[in-house]
Design a protein that fits this description.
alpha/beta; Rossmann fold; 4 domains; 23 strands
Length: 574
């Protein structure tokens, strides 16, 4: 189908795309362009996407052609595509892989069939310093130690290299996936998890071995990592966000593989055990005694002959880990994340150093198949009291956000929601940014509070009590954003957040997306103070989830207090 005035897209020559939300074809068009376009704005009726170089290159690396992208735009466009757009799009897409890193006779080389391009690149700052001797008209020698930083330089000048130089095998580690888990339940890798591993591994070909798998929270990214280990049969280093996440990975590995516990070590602030499979935190890797000193735990990266390094929650990868990753490009690297969005805008470094996006499944697709729970999303707006309105009006710009976020009237709404979800099977998480606010809520409702200062042993006891149903409510600081395994949690109340963080919003919704038994609603409530900076940031926070097909029902505080919210069956999905 070609352009039609009844279609929902307006494609513009500046590479922006306007999508009509109220159009019957909205969802279909959104899903068609999401693999290669980035959502920028999502007000009520018209959403704005942009074709960025990185969004196009990620789609190309995942196997999507420029012609397929143009066809998707033509199929849903109201008007003929601007004359400049198809050739511009094709030219940008063609830049991915026009230069390649290859190994020829054991030597790493930068290769291209486009001699003028090679001449141009060889004169570019950020590229020329990392090229070795000229080999011939179409290639330069490259020192292996410069493999990563050269890729960063090439993407910075607009020509991302396809890395076909291959990888070291690493020390062998035989392992098999169990058919029955330690719990006695049957275990089978799901079809999309198998697809993710196949896209990453590529049968051992040089085109596989580095890249990022994007799956929703609750969809089993840990299983993807474990299945990749089983496919490679090699010693593996796993880097993740916290000691809690380390313990969760260890439980999952021992539950789903035949590896002996002695072969799975943890390297954290509490233990320093290097083993054929080593699980470490980003915090310990990036620790250094002095601000300008060395990183004493960087030896982890060459402590054993790793054949695979897994970067869990790759959107949170700290800057020092990028630096060491640039030096270990011969190791296979798998990034796992729910979103490629980085608030520090280092997505290009993820692309260059970890690898491009290799696999991505829209959240709605997995929801429709029952692999993640259907979620109902609500933004509840409330006012400030008279005294706080004046304090807010007189406050400095940054302080305004804190005042709005800590609004004490939110506590009363939390009470209403806790009464609303007081069924014995409901499991409620209250999460926020500001410790003063969280302590106030925890004390008022006599609910356990977990913060960054809570000892790991105490956290594990509380998490286990929550899983077992011995406690049904928890208050969490930012430690609850990721890597906690609370599959029965079905209600989340967000009382404050980290400014406009899209990744945080996605991670928090993800805490309640594990599939549930029975008819319990899975609901996400974000409490936002109206007429303040918090509303502006809330809108930006929701961008990524809007891109995934979620929308927020907007409620007033009176709606909540007067008649107990929207219908339990209403959905946040379009």
């Amino acid at each position: 189908m070609q352009y039609n005035p009844a279609n929902p897209l307006i494609v513009q020559g500046d590479r922006t795309i306007l999508l009509e939300v109220d159009n019957p074809l909205h969802a279909e068009a959104r899903d068609a362009i999401a693999p290669f376009a980035e959502l920028e704005k999502s007000p009520e009726h018209i959403h704005t996407y942009r074709l960025t170089p990185l969004s196009l290159w990620n789609a190309a690396a995942a196997g999507m052609t420029a012609d397929a992208m143009v066809q998707a735009l033509e199929s849903f466009s109201k008007f003929p595509l601007p004359g400049n757009l198809p050739p511009d799009l094709r030219e940008l897409v063609s830049r991915y892989g026009r230069v390649r890193l290859q190994r020829v006779d054991g030597q790493l080389r930068l290769v291209t069939t486009d001699r003028p391009l090679l001449e141009e690149l060889a004169r570019q700052r950020g590229v020329r310093d990392y090229l070795g001797e000229r080999v011939d008209e179409t290639s330069f020698a490259v020192d292996d130690i410069h493999r990563g930083i050269l890729k960063q330089g090439l993407i910075a000048v607009g020509y991302p290299a396809e890395d076909l130089a291959g990888y070291t095998t690493g020390a062998a580690l035989p392992m098999a996936l169990r058919k029955v888990m330690g719990t006695g339940a049957p275990f089978k890798v799901r079809d999309y998890q198998e697809g993710a591993v196949a896209a990453f591994y590529a049968g051992g070909d040089a085109r596989g071995g580095s890249g990022v798998v994007v799956l929703p929270c609750g969809a089993g990214k840990t299983v993807v990592g474990i299945a990749a280990m089983a496919a490679l049969q090699t010693e593996t280093l796993v880097l993740t966000t916290s000691t809690t996440a380390v313990e969760q990975w260890r439980r999952e590995i021992l539950d789903k593989t035949d590896l002996d516990p002695a072969l799975v070590g943890t390297y954290t602030g509490d233990s320093k055990n290097l083993a054929p499979v080593t699980l470490a935190t980003y915090q310990i890797v990036t620790y250094r005694p002095k601000k300008d000193g060395d990183f004493p735990h960087f030896h982890l990266f060459d402590g054993r002959d790793w054949g695979l390094i897994v970067y869990d929650e790759v959107h949170l990868l700290p800057a020092p880990v990028f630096r060491i990753t640039a030096d270990i490009q011969a190791r296979r690297r798998l990034g796992l994340t729910a979103t490629l969005v980085r608030e520090d805008h280092r997505e290009e470094d993820v692309f260059s150093l970890i690898g491009p996006k290799k696999y991505d499944v829209p959240w709605r697709v997995l929801e429709s198949k029952g692999w993640i729970a259907e979620a109902q999303c609500h933004e509840v707006r409330l006012g400030l009291s008279g005294a706080l309105r004046m304090e807010y009006a007189l406050a400095e710009w940054r302080e305004k956000f804190r005042i709005a976020s800590e609004n004490p009237l939110k506590d009363d709404l939390v009470e209403v929601l806790l009464k609303r979800f007081d069924h014995p099977e409901d499991r409620v998480l209250v999460i926020g940014q500001y410790l003063k606010q969280l302590r106030r809520i925890a004390e008022r409702f006599d609910v356990p509070l977990i913060t960054g200062s809570t000892p790991n042993s105490e956290r594990e006891i509380l998490y286990e009590d929550f899983r077992r149903g011995r406690i049904r409510r928890l208050v969490l600081s930012k430690v609850g954003n990721f890597a906690i395994d609370l599959p029965d949690a079905n209600i989340m109340i967000q009382v404050s957040g980290t400014f406009g963080s899209r990744q945080e919003e996605a991670q928090r919704l993800g805490r309640i997306l594990r599939p549930k038994e029975g008819e319990r609603p899975t609901s996400f409530y974000s409490l936002v103070t109206r007429d303040t900076r918090e509303m502006d940031f809330a809108h930006h926070r929701q961008l990524f989830l809007t891109e995934q097909g979620y929308s927020y029902e907007i409620l007033d505080e009176a709606d909540v207090a007067d008649h107990g919210l929207a219908r339990p069956g209403s959905s946040c999905n379009d």
